[in-house]
């Protein structure tokens, strides 16, 4: 009997269930009744607390299009994994204990950056692990694309589309703030797809005067409205140049709910033009995966099942140049895939007049 555990960890996104389905179907197809799949509840928390259940094949039916995760998820920061908490729980030892209790041959882990650090640690601790790259942020190293990203781009683009009509009617400046944590992929793609006039991403610290100049130039040319796509992690040049500690303090002490509100205030002051902020937030992570995410998660899931069948452990299924390939976990863990500031996407955007505030 082959025994495989599956867990989803960190922030959810579209495509988790279709990826889970891909793994399960790939395993049942090969092993038939000779495989048991354990669903670990709420990510690493379930593995720490011994919360899991034996899944049935029918649990994986009808979930291709369903958003969220049927297993539940939670955030368990990597930096605390080796810290013994006040209830004296040794989390790593507990995870190893429950892995052994389930008699697992392998654990399939679906998650983002933090999740991959813990997955790599578990692999180094001797557990058999394969991982799948999940996040709307698209910031996992070793894969050209993560699942959830394109669905989130669709949603953020739709928001910008809707904002366009109201911005035009009122002749206002609008900021749409996109998620993405420390990476600008989602803002960049949605900003271009939605026709934003200004795109601000963490990788390119902005100069507020350049942003204001761009809006003034639009007004001068007869354009009555402007749209900015701003990443939640966007940062001004001024703050980006500060020493690490000071930078952290400046961000923490910001007097606005988020960076977009600060930028909106500065624009309104300088231009006199009414400026509004829209934050779609977790909306970007919700709902069904789009066709592309169903397509790639099915491939990632099938590839993960293949790795398990071949007992090729310690790998993430990555997408490289359109092909799903195994990428060593220790190469993925701890690295961030940021937007390269000299990439062709940014060059093309600048070629058509989009400002990045630099
Ligand atoms: O990593 C995915 C993500 O949605 C980021 O874009 C965002 O910064 C963060 O999660 C939000 O986290 P939470 O769901 O814990 O509020």
As a whole number of angstroms, the C-alpha radius of gyration is: 22 Å
Helix content percent band:
40-55%
Biggest sheet features:
7 strands, mixed
Q: Which small-molecule species are bound to the chains here? A: 6-O-phosphono-beta-D-fructofuranose
The overall pLDDT average reads 97
Q: What name does the CATH topology of the largest domain carry?
A: Rossmann fold
What is the beta-strand fraction? Answer: 15-25%
Strand elements, count = 11
Anisotropy-based shape: elongated
Q: What can you see in these coordinates?
A:
The protein has 358 residues and is of the alpha/beta class. The chain folds into 2 domains: 2-147 and 289-332, Rossmann fold (3-Layer(aba) Sandwich); 151-284, Rossmann fold (3-Layer(aba) Sandwich). The chain contains 13 helices and 11 strands. The chain has helices at residues 16-31, 44-49, 91-101, 113-124, 149-170, 185-193, 208-220, 237-240, 244-252, 259-271, 291-309, 329-332, 344-351; strands at 2-8, 35-40, 52-54, 106-111, 129-133, 173-178, 198-200, 226-231, 275-278, 315-320, 323-328. It has a 7-stranded mixed beta sheet, with helices on both faces. Strands 7-8-6-9 form a 4-stranded parallel beta sheet, with helices on both faces. Helix 1 (16-31) links the parallel strand 1 (2-8) and strand 2 (35-40). Helix 5 crosses helix 6 and helix 7 packs across helix 10 (259-271). The structure holds 6-O-phosphono-beta-D-fructofuranose. 6-O-phosphono-beta-D-fructofuranose is lined by residues 11, 75, 112, 135-137, 179-181, 232, 285.
